[in-house]
Design a protein that fits this description.
The chain is of the alpha+beta class. Helices cover 35% and strands 12% of the residues. Helix 1 runs parallel beside helix 2.
């Protein structure tokens, strides 16, 4: 599959507010943003995690909704050209720049609008 996704919150028990917040923030940029929790864990509703995490998760969700037109356009472009829109930055950088420290960066092609 060409989709990059994760199950935000996971299925392995209780998470913590910092990790869940960062998971939300990453999920904004993934094609599929799914938030899950187990029955035994605190549900992953932002308002259950207190401040500042509630505000940060809310901001991430608001950004996600603002980016939806880009996600739809990029999904369409991907379907036409079979290129993932979310991929490692290393896949986009020319070999001349191989010495760059880009192992943790991601690339999202916003030019195919």
């Amino acid at each position: 599959p060409k989709w990059t996704k994760c199950d935000i919150g996971g299925f392995t028990g209780q998470t913590n507010a910092v990790l869940l917040t960062r998971w939300f923030q990453l999920g904004v940029f993934l094609p599929t943003m799914r938030v899950h929790s187990t029955l035994a864990a605190t549900p992953h509703f932002p308002w259950l995690w207190g401040q500042p995490h509630e505000a940060l998760m809310r901001a991430a969700l608001e950004l996600r909704y603002r980016l939806l037109p880009y996600h739809y356009s990029l999904a369409h472009a991907m379907a036409r050209g079979a290129v993932m829109w979310m991929r490692p930055m290393a896949a986009e950088v020319a070999m001349a720049n191989a010495d760059m420290d880009i192992d943790a960066d991601i690339y999202a092609d916003m030019t195919s609008q």
